[in-house]
Amino acid sequence: MSTDTPDATVDDTPSRAELAARVDELEDALAEATDQDDTKKMSIISTKGTLDMAYPPLILASTAAAFDYEVTVFHTFWGLDILHEERSKSLKLSSVGNPNMPVPNAVAALPGMDRVTTKMMEKKIADNDTATIEELIETSLDMGVEFQACQMTIDLMDYDEADFYDGVTTGVGAATALQDMADADIQLLV
Amino acid sequence: MSAEFDITETLDVKGASCPMPVVKTKSAIDDLAEGEILEVLATDPGSMSDIDGWASGTDGVELVDQEEGDDVYTHYIRKTE
C-alpha cells in the first residue's frame, strides 16, 4: 500500500466566528436587496393621440396608481396631444381605417366625417358617464402618476411647455423612458 | 343595508364607469383609519370583479363583502393597515 498520501494538515474549514460573520454579511445584503424595491412599478409609452387611443394608457395608469404602483407614462409623437391641455379636449376619432365603424370607408373618407364620428363618440362617452380625458388626467395626476412629455416631440410639434397640464414633466427623452421600463414590473406600448 | 359591520364612510359612485369606481374607492380608503370600513355603491357591473381584484392586489385593504342588488352593487372594504 502506498504511504505517500497527500499531507492533510492544512485546515481550511472556516471557524464558527467566520461563518457567523459571513451569515450576518449575507443577511445584510439580502435585506438591502429586498428592501430597496418593494414598490411595484409600471411604465407606459403612449404614442397615439386619437380619442379612442387616449383612453387605454390613462385608464391603466390611474388604475395602477390605485394599486399603489409607481406609474410613469411617457408621451411621444401623437400621444403628446393627450397632455396638451387645449388639444386634449378636442381629440378626434378617425372614421377611416376602422372596419368596426358604422360607415363604409368610402363614405368615411368624405370631408367632415371625422367630425361626425367624433361627435358620435363624444355623445356616447357623455351618455355612458365615461370619464373624459381631462378628468382622467387630473385624477391620475392627483394619484401621483408621472406624465412625461417627450422633449423631441415638443420641439418637433413646436409646442410650448406652458401648453401642458400642470404637473407634466418635460425635458425628458428616450433614455429616461428606457430606464423607467427597465425598472418597471409592467411595461406597455400604447 | 347590512347590520353585520359598522360602516365608517359611504362612497357613492353610481353612474361612474371604469376606472372611476376603483380609483375613487382607493382615494376614499386612503382617508380612513385602520380597521374602518368603506361602503361603496356602484352601478357599474364590472365593479364586482374590479373591486375584488383591486382589493386582493393591494396591500392594506380587505374586501369584506359584496352584494349584488337590482341596480346597485355594494362593496364593503376594510382598511387593514
Please tell me about this protein's structure.
The complex is a heterodimer of chains A (190) and B (81). Chain A has a domain of 114 residues: DsrEFH-like (Hypothetical Protein Ychn, Chain: A, 3-Layer(aba) Sandwich). The radius of gyration of chain A is 27 Å and the shape is elongated. A five-stranded parallel β-sheet of chain A has the order 4-3-2-1-5, with helices on both faces. Chain A starts with 15 loop residues before the first helix and ends with a strand. The longest helix of chain A has 21 residues. Chain A is built from seven helices and five strands, in the order H-E-H-E-H-H-H-E-H-E-H-E. The mean pLDDT of chain A is 90. By secondary structure, chain A is α/β, with parallel strands linked by helices. In chain A, helix 2 links the parallel strand 1 and strand 2. With 81 residues, chain B is of the alpha+beta class. Chain B has one domain: TusA-like domain (Translation Initiation Factor IF3, 2-Layer Sandwich), CATH 3.30.110. In chain B, strands 1-2-4-3 form a four-stranded mixed β-sheet, with helices on one face. The relative contact order of chain B is 0.27. In chain B, strand 3 and strand 4 form a beta hairpin. The chains are: A alpha/beta (190), B alpha+beta (81).
CATH class of the domain at 40-95 and 132-189 in chain A: Alpha Beta
Would you tell me which CATH topology of chain B applies?
Translation Initiation Factor IF3
Mean of residue pLDDT values of chain B: 92
Q: Portion of residues in helices of chain B?
A: 25-40%
Number of strands of chain B: 4
Q: Any idea what the radius of gyration of chain B is?
A: 11 Å
Main β-sheet, spatial strand arrangement of chain A: 4-3-2-1-5
Give the overall form of chain B.
Answer: globular
Compute the CA-based radius of gyration of chain A.
Answer: 27 Å
What's the end-to-end separation of chain A, in Å? 77 Å
Low-confidence residue ranges of chain A: none
Structural class given helices, strands, pairing of chain A? alpha/beta
Structural class of chain B: alpha+beta
What does the average pLDDT of chain A come to? 90
Tell me what the CATH architecture of chain B is. 2-Layer Sandwich
Strand order of the largest sheet of chain B: 1-2-4-3
Q: How many separate domains of chain B?
A: 1
Return the CATH architecture of the domain at 40-95 and 132-189 in chain A. Answer: 3-Layer(aba) Sandwich
